[in-house]
């Protein structure tokens, strides 16, 4: 396909990594939710690079040798970021993954029950689910969020990550990051 034909359908979203490299994802001009690099995905991708997870100068890289599952991948930018930070070929998911990453999965009413069930099936006692979502205040969204957290808290505990632990440039008051773990 000619480059100019591609340019009419896609544009490039570029997420600069802390090491100066860039993660480039082609986003469709037109399409459904899976064609968009959502703001919550960028916030979560940059959170994965914060020094608590990844600081090569101090020998910190929690992503190296870890199994990671991304739910609600959309364009896959969060999983791609995790892979560039140390993901290896992990061909099986059992034992349960070390991390489950979710960006903007809490918006579609019909997916709430299957989403919580998927989290229950995927996660083990050591799994950390990192959930990033944009809090939406219009329409059915507040009800959907409430229902998700009601179901989730039956089996999981949640810890909201304060803004000072997030990437200083890529954060927003309406985008929340949570660490979610199975209750023991």
Protein traits:
184 residues; alpha/beta; Rossmann fold; 5-stranded mixed beta sheet; 5 helices; globular
Question: How many separate domains?
Answer: 1
Order of helices and strands: HEEHEEEHEHEHEE
Helix content: 25-40%
Assigned CATH superfamily:
Vaccinia Virus protein VP39
Low-confidence stretches: none
Count the beta strands. 9
- CATH topology, by name, is Rossmann fold
* CATH classification, class level: Alpha Beta
Question: Mind telling me the C-alpha Rg?
Answer: 17 Å
What class, by secondary structure content?
alpha/beta
Structure explained in plain terms:
This protein is an alpha/beta fold. It has one domain (37-182): 3-Layer(aba) Sandwich (Rossmann fold), CATH 3.40.50.150. The protein has 5 helices and 9 strands; from the N terminus they run αββαβββαβαβαββ. The chain has helices spanning 3-9, 39-47, 77-84, 112-122, 141-152, and strands at 10-16, 22-28, 54-55, 60-61, 68-71, 99-103, 128-134, 156-160, 175-182. It has a 5-stranded mixed β-sheet, with helices on both faces. A two-stranded antiparallel sheet has the order 1-2. It has a two-stranded antiparallel sheet with strand order 3-4. β5, α3 and β6 (99-103) form a beta-alpha-beta unit. The longest helix has 12 residues, at 141-152. The termini are far apart. Keywords: Methyltransferase, S-adenosyl-L-methionine, Transferase.
């Amino acid at each position: 396909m000619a480059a100019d034909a591609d340019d009419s359908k896609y544009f490039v979203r570029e997420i600069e990594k802390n090491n100066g490299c860039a993660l480039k994802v082609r986003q469709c001009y037109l399409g459904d939710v899976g064609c968009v690099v959502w703001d919550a995905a960028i916030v979560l991708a940059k959170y994965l690079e914060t020094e608590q997870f990844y600081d090569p100068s101090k020998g910190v890289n929690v992503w190296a040798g870890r199994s990671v599952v991304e739910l609600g991948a959309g364009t896959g930018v969060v999983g791609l970021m995790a892979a560039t930070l140390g993901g290896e070929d992990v061909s099986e998911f059992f034992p349960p993954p070390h991390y489950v990453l979710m960006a903007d999965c809490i918006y579609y009413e019909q997916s709430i029950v299957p989403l919580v069930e998927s989290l229950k099936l995927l996660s083990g006692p050591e799994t950390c689910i990192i959930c990033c979502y944009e809090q939406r205040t219009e329409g059915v969204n507040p009800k959907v969020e409430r229902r998700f957290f009601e179901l989730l808290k039956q089996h999981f505990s949640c810890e909201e990550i304060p803004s000072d632990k997030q990437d200083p440039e890529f954060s927003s008051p309406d985008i929340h990051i949570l660490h979610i773990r199975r209750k023991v």
